[in-house]
Write a structure and sequence with these properties.
Blueprint: H1 14-24, H2 30-60, H3 67-82, H4 90-97, H5 101-112, H6 116-134, H7 139-145, H8 151-162, H9 166-173
Helix pairs in contact: 1-2, 3-4, 3-5, 4-5, 6-8
Protein name: Helix-turn-helix transcriptional regulator
Domain HTH araC/xylS-type: 74-172
Keywords: DNA-binding, Transcription, Transcription regulation
């Protein structure tokens, strides 16, 4: 979409489609037809607006972050990137940046759209791809360099992210 929220056909629900069918196949005439159609249009509008209103309420409930908390969350991100192979625990990371773990978790998700360790996982996989591109490491060496202790776990995660086994990816770069 182009930045604006709006109703799209693929967002219709079965209940909405029933209301549209009832509008299209109205069994009444005259004043009764007019009242029936008006009520169905109002019903359809209610069905369209309800999820949008729920979304707006959810956005208002979002945790309010202070500017200094945002700076601390960005600092936490930098700390994670600096030690991909051996990251601190969530509690240790929160303490290191001066936040409690709840505020770090909630704020991190708000700012980056992922959990702290979901973000770490993504960064590890991106870094592993870059290391494989460079061609200076074996697959096992790359897995260790980005903090995977089990080569099979690394291969499965890499395959889920990039759609190919890391060994196949490495061979394609040579």
């Amino acid at each position: 979409m182009n930045g604006r929220q709006g109703f799209q056909h693929n967002q219709s629900t079965p209940v909405m489609r029933v209301a549209v069918q009832q509008i299209l196949h109205c069994p009444y005439y005259g004043l009764t037809k007019r009242m029936y159609l008006q009520s169905k249009v109002i019903e359809l509008w209610a069905l369209i607006l309800e999820p949008l209103l729920k979304e707006t309420k959810a956005q208002k409930r979002q945790f309010k972050l202070k500017a200094e908390d945002i700076d601390r969350i960005y600092h936490a991100k930098e700390m994670l990137l600096a030690c991909l192979d051996n990251p601190p625990s969530l509690i240790d990371l929160a303490r290191a940046v001066g936040l409690n773990d709840y505020k770090l978790k909630i704020g991190f998700r708000q700012i980056f759209g992922k959990t702290v360790f979901g973000y770490l996982h993504e960064c590890r996989l991106e870094q592993s791809r870059l290391l494989l591109d460079a061609g200076n490491f074996t697959v096992a060496g790359v897995a260790r360099a980005v903090g995977f202790t089990n080569r099979g776990d690394f291969a499965a995660a890499f395959r889920r992210k990039f759609g190919v086994n890391p060994s196949v990816y490495l061979r394609s770069k040579r």
